[in-house]
Every structure is written in structure tokens, then in C-alpha cells.
């Protein structure tokens, strides 16, 4: 039992070493990771806004949980929890292997280019999906053998399905490894569909917007310091080169690839003979690799197909799906380490060489990716929101006019000085309780990827009007009642309106009353019913998971106590 705890403790050490200053007071705000003290449960969060529901159901889950746990604490729990859960899951998946092999696999899993790049990019739902993968393989194997379903299976599936891409990864892993017995197949499929129902339903209600998605070539997997297919083998190659650790661009990346190939090759035969689910594991690896490389190999063809197949746009950032390759790497590397140990003439068991080997193999992933340490070498850190931002948010809550908000300058990302100059999606809309219209355009170098929200496109046209008053009138026609201008973020178009608050940094204005018919966004009854149905299915899974996590362990304790008394 003590030996089984060592890999989990090691995962905790690695998590703290990687996150470093990000665990300090304040919020980690990096690219797509935007957490606030108290996220409001708005229509946008539920997927009922005009934009694509990219953060469904993750935002809704956070909006509920941060009423119980402060947002800052919740974010720390998610970050360190995802890394520890990944490492512990890796050890559990290869629990029959030696301690040396388990420690090495924990390091390989936690100290991974995928983890470093997605953490820097702020894709925390994908980190949770990555962490859920090994546990779902274990759960799927139990399903396939007809064993009693693990009490943690549904909670882990929920944790690993907080976005569309995350849900695809988690659902695919559980189904690929667990769909073997017909009597359980229907229940397993229903569980996976219900867990993913919110983003499936809200995505279908925005199918026309999704069909306009472009930029497959921009979001295609990149090669880091390796050719793209080889980078994918190491679970690296994110499209945004700004979040790639510098060591991934030099000779160390070749060392990392060589080590991985040697260990996989050494263990492949042993694993193949012993694993009854080798076909499922290899299929997951092949699917993950093929999907990750599709955008790199044929971006134009995919973009053309996406116009007729709206769901295809979810695979634009296809390297998100690389966690599908993770189970094969874990299993073959662990087998390779034990195989190489046996070939040395004797097993390294309870000896000094055994521990020396464990230390070397456990530290090897760190040695080839050293700049993933201590907040990704400064790439991420903790910062707190300026007091005037929070005061402005509170002041807006007291305003009588109904209507939404536009935040200027009209750009998606900011790099505020109080956040160390780190790029982040504009945090102001998330600080508000009112719905906001935001710019969804993404500028990458000289390329602009247009956002899919039609209301945002109309707002952009309104802001292009000739003078401040015309801009104000056009925005009011869209149902927008307030404008917030962040003067520290660059130049912004002037809009005529009554000044509610002006502290020099943030300007809050109330737009004049509208004249004529409003061209706002309304939700049809069919759409509303479908979305409500999706959320009810999800809520049912949450309630079942809660009962299995809380009530089942309590009932076991009570039964044991009764047996002792009896």
C-alpha cells in the first residue's frame, strides 16, 4: 500500500514544480484561461447566447462551484488536481509493473509537452480530459470484463468532459475500451451521451455559425523542433508557437523522441502479448494521431468539408485530441522499462541500482523539458484584478437599464501590465453579471480568423459608423445598453453616451435610449426546450455521480460498522 502511494506523491511533487508561482495568491490568466472571483450563471454560460458554445459546460460548472469555493481557490484545485490525477491514473493503469516503471510513466505523463503547451494556452478542460484518460481505460476494462462498475467512473467522465474536444476524448476512450458486452453497451452509450448533452445540443442550435468556421491551416499542428508527425508522437506540436517551451525547439527534443522510441520499441512486444485490449488501445492511438495530423496534411480539404459538415469545425485545433495516444505510450513505456531491466540479467528489486534507475528514469522527462518548471519558466503566473475593475462590475449591477454590454477596444485579447504583460482573453466580460458582446476575431500574425458570432459582426459594423452618436444608436439597436472602455488596452472608437463611471483607466457609459425596433437576439421555444433537455440529462448524471461519490462510501462505512457491532 505504501509503495502504491509513492507514484501519486511523485505526481504531486511534479505538479508543484511545474506550476510554481501559479499556485500563489491571485488568478492565472493566460490566453484562453480566464477565471474570475465569481462567474455569473448567464445565458451565454448555458450556451443560449449568439456565439458558439465553446465553454459549455465548463463555464456553467465553474459558475455553480465558485458559489461554494472561491474562484481563486477553485482554479488552483483544478490546475494541481489535473496534474496529480493524470500521474495517479498513469500509475494505476500500469499498476502491475515495477515501481521503477510506474515512477517513470508518472513523469512521462505529467511532465509532457502536451501538458506544458495546453497549460500555457489555458486549455484547462483539456488538461482534465488528459488526466481522465488513464482512469477511463481502467474503468473501460472493468466494463469489458463484466466487473462491477467503479464508483469513480461517472465522476471522472464528468470531469473529463467539460468541453466538446474534452468530451470527445473522454467518451472515445471509455467506449473503445468498455464496449464489449451487449448488456452494458446501451447504458454506457447513454451515459456518455448524457454527460456530453449540453455541448452537443447547444452546438446543434448553432450549426449555421459553426459552418462558417475557417482557419484550419492556421490551427494545424506545428512541428516544434521536429517534423510535425514526429512532434505528434511526443504529444507536442500546438499551433500557437508562443506557448511552446524553448527546449522543444532545440536538440533536447530529439533526445526526448529517441528515448521514447527506445522504450516503446523495447516494450511493444511484451505489452502486445499480455494485453487483451491491444486492438482498442492501438485504435485510440491511431485515431488520435490521424486526427492530429489531418489539419497539417490537408487543411484546405477539411475547411471545404466543414462548410457542409458543421461539426467538423471542432477538429480545427486537432492536436487537442492527442490524449487519445496516451494509453499506448503509458503501457508500452512501462513494459519497455521492465523488459530492459530483465535483460540486464536480473530484476532490479530492492537494491541500490533499482533506486538509481528509478531516479534517472523519473527525472529524464524533466531533463529534456527543463523550461516546463516553475510556471513554465515564467510563462504563467498569478495576478489579481485591479480594485477599480471589481468596483466597476459592482456599479454596473446597480444600473437600472436592461441591456447588454460591449467592451472596447474591439479586440479579443489583452496583455495587461498588472498581469505581467501576459496575453489573455479580455477578462472584463466574465467579471460582469450581464451578457456581453465580444469580438471573436483571432489575429495570428498577418492572418485574421473571423469569429462566428453574427451579433458580434453586427456590433463591429456599428462601431465602424462615421461618428460617436451613430455608433451609440447602432449599438442600442442591438440591445446594448452600456459600453466599457479599457483605456489601458489601446485605442478604441469613441461612443456617445452618459458617463456612469470614469477612473482614468476604465470608462463606463450608458447609451442613449433606442429609437425604432430593436434587432436583438431571441431564443425560440424549440431551441430553449432542446437546451433545457440537454442540461437536465447532464444534471441527472451529476446527481448520480454525487451519490456514488458521497453516499456510497458512507453506506459502506455504515455497513462495516453494523457488521462489527453484530
From TrEMBL:
Keywords: Membrane, Transmembrane, Transmembrane helix
Keyword presence, Transmembrane helix: yes
Domain of life: Bacteria
Transmembrane segments: 68-87, 122-139, 151-179, 185-207, 251-272, 279-301, 321-340, 352-369, 535-555
Name of the protein this chain belongs to: Membrane protein YfhO
Organism, as annotated: Nocardioides albertanoniae
Taxonomic path: Bacteria, Bacillati, Actinomycetota, Actinomycetes, Propionibacteriales
Amino acid at each position: 500500500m505504501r509503495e502504491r502511494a509513492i507514484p501519486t506523491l511523485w505526481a504531486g511533487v511534479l505538479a508543484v514544480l511545474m506550476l510554481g508561482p501559479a499556485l500563489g495568491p491571485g488568478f492565472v490568466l493566460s490566453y484562453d484561461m480566464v477565471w474570475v472571483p465569481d462567474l455569473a450563471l448567464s445565458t451565454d454560460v448555458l450556451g443560449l447566447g449568439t456565439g458558439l458554445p465553446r465553454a459549455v459546460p465548463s463555464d456553467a460548472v465553474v459558475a455553480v462551484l465558485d458559489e461554494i469555493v472561491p474562484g481563486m481557490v477553485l482554479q488552483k484545485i483544478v490546475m494541481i488536481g489535473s496534474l496529480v490525477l493524470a500521474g495517479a491514473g498513469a500509475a494505476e493503469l500500469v499498476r502491475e509493473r515495477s515501481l521503477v516503471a510506474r515512477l517513470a510513466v508518472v513523469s512521462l505523463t505529467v511532465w509532457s509537452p502536451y501538458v506544458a503547451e495546453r497549460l500555457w494556452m489555458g486549455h484547462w478542460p483539456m488538461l482534465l480530459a488528459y488526466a481522465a484518460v488513464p482512469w477511463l481505460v481502467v474503468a473501460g476494462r472493468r466494463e469489458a470484463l463484466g466487473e462491477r462498475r467503479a464508483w469513480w467512473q461517472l465522476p471522472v467522465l464528468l470531469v473529463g468532459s467539460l468541453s466538446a474536444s474534452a468530451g470527445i476524448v473522454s467518451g472515445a476512450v471509455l467506449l473503445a475500451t468498455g464496449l464489449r458486452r451487449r448488456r452494458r453497451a446501451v447504458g454506457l452509450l447513454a451515459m456518455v451521451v448524457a454527460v456530453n448533452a449540453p455541448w452537443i445540443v447547444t452546438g446543434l442550435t448553432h450549426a449555421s455559425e459553426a459552418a462558417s468556421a475557417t482557419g484550419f491551416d492556421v490551427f494545424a499542428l506545428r512541428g516544434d523542433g521536429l517534423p510535425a508527425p514526429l512532434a505528434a508522437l511526443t504529444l507536442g506540436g500546438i499551433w500557437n508557437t508562443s506557448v511552446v517551451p524553448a527546449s522543444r525547439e532545440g536538440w533536447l527534443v530529439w533526445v526526448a523522441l529517441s528515448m521514447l522510441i527506445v522504450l516503446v520499441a523495447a516494450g511493444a512486444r511484451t505489452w502486445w502479448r499480455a494485453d487483451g485490449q491491444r486492438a482498442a488501445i492501438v485504435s485510440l492511438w491511431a485515431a488520435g494521431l490521424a486526427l492530429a495530423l489531418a489539419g497539417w496534411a490537408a487543411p484546405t480539404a477539411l475547411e471545404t468539408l466543414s462548410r457542409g459538415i458543421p461539426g467538423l469545425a471542432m477538429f480545427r485545433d486537432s492536436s487537442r485530441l492527442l490524449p487519445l495516444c496516451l494509453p499506448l505510450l503509458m503501457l508500452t513505456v512501462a513494459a519497455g522499462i521492465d523488459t530492459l531491466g530483465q535483460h540486464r540479467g536480473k530484476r532490479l528489486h530492492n537494491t541500490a541500482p533499482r533506486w538509481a534507475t528509478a531516479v534517472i528514469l523519473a527525472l529524464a522527462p524533466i531533463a529534456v523539458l527543463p523550461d516546463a518548471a516553475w510556471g513554465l519558466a515564467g510563462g504563467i503566473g498569478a495576478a489579481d484584478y485591479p480594485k477599480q475593475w471589481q468596483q466597476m462590475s459592482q456599479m454596473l449591477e446597480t444600473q437600472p437599464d436592461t441591456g447588454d454590454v460591449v467592451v472596447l477596444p474591439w479586440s479579443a485579447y489583452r496583455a495587461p501590465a498588472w498581469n505581467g504583460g501576459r496575453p489573455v482573453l479580455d477578462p472584463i466580460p466574465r467579471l460582469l453579471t450581464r451578457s456581453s458582446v465580444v469580438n471573436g476575431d483571432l489575429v495570428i500574425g498577418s492572418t485574421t480568423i473571423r469569429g462566428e458570432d453574427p451579433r458580434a459582426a453586427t456590433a463591429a459594423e456599428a462601431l465602424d459608423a462615421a461618428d460617436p452618436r451613430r455608433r451609440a444608436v447602432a449599438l442600442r439597436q442591438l440591445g446594448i445598453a452600456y459600453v466599457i472602455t479599457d483605456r489601458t488596452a489601446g485605442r478604441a472608437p469613441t461612443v456617445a453616451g452618459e458617463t456612469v463611471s470614469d477612473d482614468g483607466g476604465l470608462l463606463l457609459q450608458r447609451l442613449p435610449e433606442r429609437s425604432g425596433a430593436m434587432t436583438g437576439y431571441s431564443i425560440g421555444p424549440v431551441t430553449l426546450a432542446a437546451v433545457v433537455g440537454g442540461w437536465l440529462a447532464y444534471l441527472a448524471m451529476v446527481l448520480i455521480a454525487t451519490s456514488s461519490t458521497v453516499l456510497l462510501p458512507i453506506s459502506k462505512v455504515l455497513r462495516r460498522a453494523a457488521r462489527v457491532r453484530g
